[in-house]
Each structure stands twice: as structure tokens, then as C-alpha cells.
Design a protein that fits this description.
single chain; 323 residues; alpha+beta; Jelly Rolls; four-stranded antiparallel β-sheet; 45% helix
Length: 323
């Protein structure tokens, strides 16, 4: 075997090892996110639904829709193709800057970024419109450029379980693309939202040339795996109010901005979304948030929550009784 052959063999092995890492990591997080919660917060397994939605890993991608304006799959409660527009005003340079700013692609050379930017397209979605549905073919890696998207799973009991809320810079759908599996959860716009979409073929080609993309995705999924593990543990043992407080704190610490009043969420968090993230009912979420408002722990400024007393809310999240 020549030195050139050895280099080629080593590079191929490295890519295979990187792919194996992300596949294993994704399967772990997928098994966790396949868990749904009943209204009283008891965790129930949803393996049948997960297995039913999975396909053979070697499955080829279906041809892309000929009409770029068509939506993929069924959109419950959405506005449909007529209510959504493909934004063409974003120049290739702007798309390249948006891609480069994401940690997953930050290490790619400029020419590779330009290739991805040239293949990408930007689309806008109205509030409640779906970017894709759970079980849709994974044809795009998506990056939020403005607005907010929630990643949601539909349980067998018909209850929505919100896995995450993503703002500008948030990336989703990429692991399903790499694995050539359907999307394991749905993505829905919470408000008017713009998403930069990189096609599967371009992403896979870039990851084959630059295994660092796979590595960064594995690190990202690893962080989400830890968060999913904590969520499942919390759903199993923590009181409902503790889960609600912990979720609000996590969102505020990750996305919030400091104001004179306190730590403010930059978006409108509905009581329904908060309930869906914590495995409880909207009525329970309303009661808990109302009690925090009356106690002065949080404020509601134009529909956006502001944490005034972070220490007191952290005590509730830890399950400690209030004085």
C-alpha cells in the first residue's frame, strides 16, 4: 500500500468513525425524545411510534419536489404554501455569513461555505406554520435566522411534547439528514420566522469532505442529549411547579436579556408551550405562573415574561418550599 493509498484509507476510516459516533449519539437522544408525558407528568414510553416512524438507514432520499414553493408533508394548523414566501432578497454573501457564524460550519474553508450558501435557500413561515412534520423525509438542515421555532413531538395520546425552542442561530434537522432517516420530530414556527435551509445533498457532500462537520454535530447532539436526560429525570421525580420553574429559568439563562426589571425572555412564551415542555396541563402552567406574578417573582411585560427574583425561582426549581 502506497503512502497516498494509506492517506486515503485513513481519511475514509476517520469519516466512518465520525459518522458512527454521531449515529450512536443520535440514536441515544432519539430514544429519550421518544418519551411522551401524560397530563399528570408521568412518563410513558412511545417506542412503538418511534419504531413505526423509522426507516432503514440505507434508504435513499426521495426526489425533491419540482416546485420549490410546495410544502413537505401535511401541515396541521399551518397556513399552507399560499401563506409562505421564499425570500430571494438575501444575497449569497449574507447566506454565507449566516452559515459561517454557526459553530457546526465555522471550521469550513471559505470555498466550502460559498458552495453551501449557493445551494441554500431562505424561507419565511408565519406563526403556527410547520417547517416540517415528524416523519417527513429529511431533505434540509435548517438554521433560524430570525424569529423562533419549536421542536415538537406528538405522543400516542395526542399530546404535544415540546423538546426545544430555538431562536436566531439555532440549527435543526441536520442529524436526520446525515442518518438518512425521517425527521424524528416536527418543527413549527412560533412567530413570523425566517429559516435558512441547506439541502441534504450539499450537507452530506460537505461532511464527507470535512469530517469536522460531523464532529461538531456530535458535540451539539451530545449537549442536547444531556438536556434530554435531565428533562426525563425531572419528569420522573420533580413536582410540576419545580419543572415549570426550571424550564423558565433555563430559557431565560440561555436566551434572556438583562433589563432594569430583571432577566427578560426575548419572545412570547405561551402557557401552552411551557406546559408542553414540562409534561403538564396548560391549566397547571397558568396557575403556577399566576402565583409567581402575584408574588412578584416574575413580571409580564407585553406578553413577555421577566424574571425578577431569580433566587426565589431557583429555589422552587430545586423543590425547596417558599418562606
Amino acid at each position: 500500500m502506497t503512502g497516498e493509498d494509506m492517506t486515503s484509507f485513513t481519511g475514509t476510516a476517520s469519516r466512518q468513525e465520525s459518522s458512527a459516533v454521531i449515529v450512536t449519539t443520535f440514536r441515544l437522544i432519539n430514544s429519550l425524545t421518544c418519551m411522551a408525558t401524560s397530563p399528570d407528568g408521568v412518563v410513558t414510553a412511545g417506542r412503538e411510534k418511534c419504531n413505526a416512524g423509522a426507516t432503514d438507514r440505507n434508504r435513499d432520499f426521495a426526489p425533491l419536489a419540482r416546485d420549490p414553493g410546495l410544502r413537505l408533508g401535511h401541515r396541521r394548523h399551518g397556513w399552507g404554501a399560499a401563506g409562505r414566501g421564499i425570500v430571494s432578497a438575501m444575497a449569497t454573501g449574507e447566506r454565507a455569513a449566516a452559515i459561517k457564524s454557526n459553530p457546526v460550519f465555522a471550521g469550513l474553508p471559505a470555498k466550502e461555505i460559498e458552495v453551501l450558501a449557493g445551494a441554500a435557500r431562505e424561507e419565511t413561515y408565519r406563526g403556527r406554520e410547520y417547517v416540517f412534520m415528524e416523519g417527513d423525509p429529511a431533505r434540509w438542515l435548517c438554521v433560524v435566522t430570525s424569529g423562533r421555532v419549536k421542536i415538537v413531538r406528538h405522543s400516542r395520546a395526542g399530546k404535544d411534547v415540546v423538546l426545544d425552542l430555538l431562536g436566531p442561530g439555532g440549527i435543526f434537522g441536520g442529524v436526520a439528514v446525515i442518518e438518512k432517516r425521517p425527521y424524528p420530530a416536527a418543527a413549527q414556527a412560533l412567530e413570523s420566522t425566517t429559516v435558512l435551509k441547506i439541502p441534504a445533498e450539499a450537507l452530506i457532500a460537505a461532511s464527507e469532505r470535512h469530517p469536522a462537520v460531523i464532529k461538531e454535530m456530535a458535540l451539539m447532539i451530545g449537549r442536547r442529549l444531556r438536556a434530554a436526560h435531565d428533562s426525563v429525570k425531572s419528569l420522573s421525580v420533580d413536582p410540576v411547579e419545580a419543572r415549570l420553574a426550571a424550564t423558565l429559568l433555563r430559557l431565560a439563562e440561555r436566551d434572556g436579556a438583562r433589563t432594569n426589571a430583571g432577566l427578560a425572555l426575548p419572545f412570547h412564551l405561551t402557557r401552552q408551550s411551557l406546559a408542553d415542555m414540562t409534561g403538564t396541563t396548560v391549566e397547571t402552567a397558568i396557575r403556577s405562573v399566576s402565583s409567581w406574578l402575584k408574588a412578584g417573582l416574575v413580571l409580564d411585560e407585553g406578553g413577555r415574561l421577566v424574571i425578577v427574583d431569580k433566587t426565589a425561582l431557583a429555589e422552587i426549581a430545586a423543590g425547596e418550599p417558599e418562606d
